[in-house]
Design goal:
This protein is mostly helical and about 300 residues long. The chain has 14 helices and two strands, in the order H-H-H-H-H-H-E-E-H-H-H-H-H-H-H-H. It is globular, with a radius of gyration of 19 Å. One of its GO terms (molecular function) is oxidoreductase activity. Pfam families: MPAB_Lcp_cat.
Length: about 300
Amino acid sequence: MSSPWQLLTRPAREPIRRWVLSAFPRQSSSPIDYDHPHGDPGLFGPDSAVWRVYSDFPGMLAGGLAALMLQTLHPLALAGVWDHSNFRGDLLGRLRRTTAFVGGTAYAPREQAEALIERVRQIHTQVRGQAEDGRPYAADDPDLLTWVHVTEAYSFLQGYRLYSPSLLPAHAADGYYDEVRRIAEALGARNVPRSEAEVSAYLHRVQPELEYSERSRIVLQVLSKVRLPVPAAGLTRDVFLHAGAALLPPWAATMLRRTPMQQAQSRLAARALRSLAPAFRAALNDGIASRACVRVDVSPKILLHWG
């Protein structure tokens, strides 16, 4: 029997599903086969924190947007985006590629996940240049890789905390950071934080290297106008962007010059996304996390619970 909440959210499911599959299409030509080989747990497996955190789409979408905002504060990381990507015309494409990499390394069978990491390593060797102040940068710089990793891992976990119905156990954050650091290290990152305390210390330590520049402003302006096929179920692009901004640490919101009105909009957007998050989950119950669970003979429902 359906619960009252399921009955209330059912009308929203189909438009939400159409929106998500339009914004983040499931490519039939994808080289990743999430269904085979049978029994392959990939790099993490069904008992991992990563499988649980990354299975919650609302938190991952908001977290991805928050990570993009954070990354605009690092001059060298931003220079690589500025010089080597079509961010003005395809910022959504960048978010899609990040989503594909994160999902692939989390849920693909081991051999395919490792191949995905190697492809990204090869791409990174071609991304080099000079920042505005003349400093050289390279996408395979171990310290830059750590920065990008931490901003994403932190933002995804905060997204889970704010938008998932499951309460994150006290021990789970440390387990999550210790698991996901393996991806960063495989890409070439060094001194990768492996606990929540280490992540907090890292973000405090790196702040003197960060700045809000004219380039930051321009990229954020492009992000604010990114083309999303919305509205869906009453949601708008701004709701998603503000829900992402709600995940920013206070010091980052200050550096990004978030106004009191924008902060208030973020709080409202967070409530709006939380209210529709169950409809997202119901609409997307056949995604790659579910397929990975079936591959290893476990019910996808285990991802809703912590052992």
